[in-house]
């Protein structure tokens, strides 16, 4: 990343910086229906925040083009981009409907601006850079949502579940629906983050009210009759049950709608959907294996996360450690799996979403003892962790902002003590207030 995403340069594309020849795969473009986002998943958590900036600047340059597309193609306010773009500001509809009619690419990219703020708590960045793009995407979303005539809930569409297809009642393959799970999750995420940003900045009360009202009336994720999380609003048979995209689990990662503690029923449905996809051959590309590793990490399943991390290295990594994507002519180099795998490794060791800081949430038996230094947590803190014989020994927190953190010990353990400046620090289950510039040392012990 330090080579492919330097200040003043374009962001890393499908081949990072290493696109060979004059006609590289997919024109070495910017696929914004997961690939470029995955490239930057490790940026904040691995303390490479400054390398995120070329992506932010690129999205900011897209914004005026995306505003014209929203107006001309949809008659909507705000801004929109689709599955792919390029250095010249392409945001228009193009390609086949199965992948082209997906108006969530800019919104997904905008969520990275929130992530930068969440990891740094820099209000200047939120005000000057994050909020304008969040507001533009929220404006489009509010205009694009419509009331479903049967349920009365707000649904996004027409849209698709990226690059995937279903079998319609006629027996034909279908692509387009009103209210695909990923589009609903994206609407929830962008409206929620826009509302939160405006509240923190003390601006746009009318926009905040519109976002809250839309969220209250939004069709949320549903569980099918077989217990799986639904990808489409109807329980259509899947044309490719082992498809590489698992877009309906966006709410598990990188989203935050599905949480093992807060929404156990949705977590169980996500687990069942993932098992079904894998039973039919899913995860056969490098980037897909990386995403699946992240899913298992969020579900707290260390052994299954390790299984797919190993698969990524074994089946989709060349001797030079470049990630690959299968093709009829042989494996193609595609760097997103490298970056996604890096993010997955960090996610197995530390998670900081959903208002919790979880230590070693998905530690596999393959890593019985070890330590990690200077990971980053949301809320603005550096984190070191040491473990031995599968048990956390200690952690160090270095907050850069003052705030409350809810600390979650590894499964089967509890926090024994917290110290700062040689003195004991009191804490409660609902959280501990950490002061900027103070180093906190945490010791763990068995829960019994």
What can you tell me about this protein's structure?
The chain has a 6-stranded antiparallel beta sheet, with no helix packed on it. Strands 9-10-14-17 form a 4-stranded mixed beta sheet. It has a two-stranded antiparallel ribbon with strand order 1-2. The protein is built from 12 helices and 18 strands. It folds into 2 domains: 25-354, Glycosyltransferase; 359-446, Golgi alpha-mannosidase II (Immunoglobulin-like). It has 448 residues and is an alpha+beta fold.
In short:
47% of the residues are buried. The N and C termini lie far apart (43 Å). It contains 12 helices and 18 strands.
- Sum up the overall morphology in one term: globular
Mean pLDDT, to the nearest integer, reads 96
Unreliable stretches: none
The biggest beta sheet reads: 6 strands, antiparallel
Output the CATH topology of the largest domain: Glycosyltransferase
Strand content: 15-25%
Our count of helices gives 12
Whole-number tally of structural domains: 2
Tally of extended strands?
Answer: 18
Specify the helix fraction band. Answer: 25-40%
- Element pattern in H and E: EHHHEHHHEEEEHHHHHEEHEEEEEEEEEE
Widest sheet, order of strands: 11-12-13-18-15-16
Oligomeric description of these chains = single chain
C-alpha-based Rg, rounded: 21 Å
Distance between the termini: 43 Å
CATH class of the largest domain: Mainly Alpha
CATH architecture of the largest domain: Alpha/alpha barrel
Q: Give me the secondary-structure category.
A: alpha+beta
């Amino acid at each position: 990343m330090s080579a492919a995403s330097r200040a003043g340069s374009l962001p890393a594309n499908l081949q990072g910086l290493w696109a060979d020849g004059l006609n590289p795969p997919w024109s070495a473009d910017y696929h914004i229906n997961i690939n470029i986002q995955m490239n930057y998943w490790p940026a904040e958590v691995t303390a490479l925040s400054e390398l995120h900036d070329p992506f932010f600047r690129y999205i900011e340059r897209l914004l005026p083009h995306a505003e014209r597309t929203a107006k001309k193609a949809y008659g909507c306010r705000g801004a929109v981009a689709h599955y792919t773009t390029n250095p010249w500001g392409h945001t228009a509809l193009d390609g086949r409907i199965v992948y082209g009619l997906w108006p969530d690419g800019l919104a997904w990219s905008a969520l990275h601006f929130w992530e930068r703020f969440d990891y740094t708590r820099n209000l200047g960045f939120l005000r000057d850079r994050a909020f304008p793009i969040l507001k533009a995407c929220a404006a489009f979303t509010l205009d694009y949502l419509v009331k479903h005539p049967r349920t009365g809930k707000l649904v996004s569409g027409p849209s698709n579940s990226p690059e995937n297809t279903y079998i319609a009642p006629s027996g034909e393959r279908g692509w387009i629906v009103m209210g695909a799970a990923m589009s609903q999750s994206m609407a929830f995420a962008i409206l929620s983050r826009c509302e939160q940003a405006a509240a923190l900045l003390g601006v746009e009360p009318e926009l905040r009210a519109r976002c809250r009202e839309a969220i209250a009336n939004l069709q949320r994720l549903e569980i099918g009759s077989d217990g799986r999380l639904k990808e489409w609003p109807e329980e259509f048979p899947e044309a490719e049950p082992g498809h590489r995209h698992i877009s309906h689990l966006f709410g598990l990662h990188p989203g935050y709608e599905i949480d093992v503690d807060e929404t156990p029923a949705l977590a169980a449905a996500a687990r069942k959907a993932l098992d079904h996809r894998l039973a039919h051959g899913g995860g056969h590309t490098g980037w897909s294996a990386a995403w699946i590793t992240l899913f298992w990490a969020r579900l707290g399943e260390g052994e299954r996360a390790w299984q797919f991390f190993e698969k990524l290295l074994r089946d989709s990594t060349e001797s030079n450690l470049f990630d690959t994507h299968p093709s009829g002519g042989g494996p193609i180099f595609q760097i997103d799996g490298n970056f996604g795998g890096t993010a997955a490794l960090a996610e197995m060791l530390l998670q900081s979403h959903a208002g919790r800081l979880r230590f070693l949430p998905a530690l596999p038996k393959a890593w019985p003892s070890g330590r990690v230094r200077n990971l980053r947590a949301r809320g603005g803190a550096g984190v070191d962790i040491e473990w031995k014989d599968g048990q956390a020994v200690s952690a160090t927190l270095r907050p850069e902002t003052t705030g409350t953190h809810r600390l979650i010990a590894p499964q089967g353990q509890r926090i024994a003590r917290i110290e700062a400046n040689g003195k004991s620090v009191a804490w409660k289950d609902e959280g501990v207030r950490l002061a900027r510039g103070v180093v906190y040392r945490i010791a763990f012990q068995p829960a019994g």
